[in-house]
Amino acid sequence: MESERQELRAELNGALKRCPWFTIGVMAPTAAEAVGALRRCEQAFGWPALAADNPDAAASEGPVFLKGNQRTGTYLIRQEEGLGVGVLISGQNAEQPELADTWGPLPRDLL
């Protein structure tokens, strides 16, 4: 299982290097878990840390969806039922749109 995770991380890292910026979606049972998954992705890929656009939402109870955008430098959290759990990452490339893609859902603990 760990070898599959390493292979997936390497493949994703290579794909993201072709994209100047990203968006990320995290579906999690709590806001704290969503922010934790975001921070692990930022650290693993060397992304600058995003700031909370709605800081009070971090105290939300129950399932959430976090949407982060590197271009704006922020993330939003909203309560959301029925999404499941996981991470979606979209690499953006306006100059070469064929390199842009979305990957996921990936496990929150992939990184």
Brief synopsis:
27% of the residues lie in helices and 32% in strands. The protein has 111 residues and is α+β, with helices and mostly antiparallel strands.
How does the SSE layout of this entry go?
Elements: H1 2-16, E1 21-28, H2 31-45, E2 51-52, E3 64-69, E4 74-79, E5 86-92, E6 101-106
Parallel strand pairs: 2-4
Antiparallel strand pairs: 1-3, 1-5, 3-4, 5-6
Structure explained in plain terms:
This protein is of the alpha+beta class. The chain has one domain (2-106): Dihydrodipicolinate Reductase, domain 2. It is built from 2 helices and 6 strands, in the order αβαβββββ. The chain has helices spanning 2-16, 31-45; strands at 21-28, 51-52, 64-69, 74-79, 86-92, 101-106. The protein has a 6-stranded mixed β-sheet, covered by helices on one side. Strand 3 and strand 4 form a beta hairpin.
Oligomer: single chain
Count of distinct strands: 6
Q: Please, how many helices?
A: 2
Q: Tell me about the largest β-sheet.
A: 6 strands, mixed
- Please indicate the count of domains: 1
| Beta-strand residue percentage | 25-35%
Unreliable residue runs? none
Could you say what the CATH topology is called? Dihydrodipicolinate Reductase, domain 2
Structural class: alpha+beta
Tell me the radius of gyration.
14 Å
- Measure the end-to-end span: 13 Å
Helix content: 25-40%
Within the largest sheet, what's the order of strands? 2-4-3-1-5-6
Q: What average pLDDT do the residues reach?
A: 88
CATH architecture: 2-Layer Sandwich
Shape: globular
